[in-house]
Amino acid sequence: MSSQHSFTVVSTFSGAGGSSLGYQLAGGKVLLAVEWDDNAVATYRLNFKDTPIYHGDIGKLTVEECCELAGVQPRELDILDGSPPCQGFSTAGKRDFGDDRNQLFREFVRLLQGLQPKVFVMENVSGMVKGKMKLIFVECLRELKASGYKVKAKVLNAMYFNVPQSRQRLIFVGVREDLEGEPGHPKAEGRPVTVRQAIGEFATVYPDERRHHRSHIYEQWQTGYNPRNGKAGLRVVRPSAYVGVFNSCRIEADKPSPTLIKSHRHWHYSCFRQLRCNETARLASYPDFFQWRSDWIERIGNSVPPNFMRAIAEHIGDNILQRMTDMGLEPRLSDG
Phi and psi dihedrals of 257, rounded to 5? Predict the structure, then answer.
């Protein structure tokens, strides 16, 4: 989207601000962030000092308070964004159909119905459309459409949008029914960025990283080598006495990173050490100036990669919001 384009956003389930940064990169202005986690809020405030934050339970945020904090009236907001917690859907977890976190999308829907923005974007894991979780996906789709929106959902992989990480996510896009325009998703922007291209210059091992007394064993690992059974494979099952993170892996240099997960620290492709904060952040497409606290592993693992959201936001800006402005369209009033 060209630099003169601008739009407004309220970001719910904001985390450390990956989505917010993506919207900013696309020319948008985030009017309000909503997040309950203390550490996530602290990181967000480090990087978005001018953005108001509702720090608390989204279930206690009324539509009226949201409008007041964001400085908008219902139907004025351009985009309502949200990434409801996805642990119950994720293929990396137990995929508990009854997990209470699976129902947090209802809080997003409640604010959507009250704010009535022109467009909404809701992000979740691809596991929502797999197996028995499809029932929840169908329920989400029904609730979003019943809120007065034309809705499309598609699984996209962040690695095709200038993110050096294979990260599949389900993206819902909705356009208010009384407005012209159809929901849609961006097309792939290019070939995936590799780990080597993203972090290659950070290969040095510092003295304080030589803390494993049997490090020579790990120095013999090839990319994806499993020391338990000697077979090749990307996932490395570790001997618990040596590696600090269960099921971590040595990443491959000339491919995008595997999905970054909040509880895993991957290992460098060319030397025996775990990835550092700046390297991990680069694999999620965060710029080097972004500031992190001590809980950076969880923050990055939970976040929406900024370049991924930038591509989605630019598509919405160019193909939906800007087209409405160019055509001088007003909302179509119902016959009733």
Answer: -65, 150
Checking if the pLDDT of 291 tops 90, the result is: yes
Condensed to tens digits (0 to 9), the pLDDT of residues 294-335 reads 899 999 999 999 999 999 999 999 999 988 877 665 444 334
Helix axis angle for 63-70 and 105-115, nearest 10°, is 70
10 Å CB burial of residue 47 (0-12, 13-18, 19+) is middle
Distance CA 18, CA 310 (A): 10
Each residue of 133-147: pLDDT tens digit?
A: 788 888 889 999 999
Q: CA-to-CA distance for 17 and 4, rounded, in angstroms?
A: 23
State pTM to two decimals.
Answer: 0.84
Domain 7-190+303-326: CATH architecture, name and number where available: 3-Layer(aba) Sandwich (3.40)
Task: Tell me which residues are annotated as active site.
Answer: 86
Return the H-helix or E-strand segment holding 315. helix 306-316
Instruction: Give the separation between CA 149 and CA 172, rounded to whole angstroms.
Output: 11
Distances (CA, A) of 321 to 91, 116, 197, 218: 34, 15, 34, 52
Give the residue carrying structure tokens 């009017």.
31
Residue with tokens 């064993």: 217
- How distant, in Å, are the alpha carbons of 9, 25, 65, 120 from that of 116? 12, 24, 15, 9
Among 218, 290, 224, which residue's Cα sits nearest to residue 258? 224
End-to-end CA distance of the chain: 37
Q: Report helix, strand or coil for 9.
A: strand
From its phi and psi, is residue 100 left (phi > 0), alpha (psi between -120 and 50) or beta?
alpha
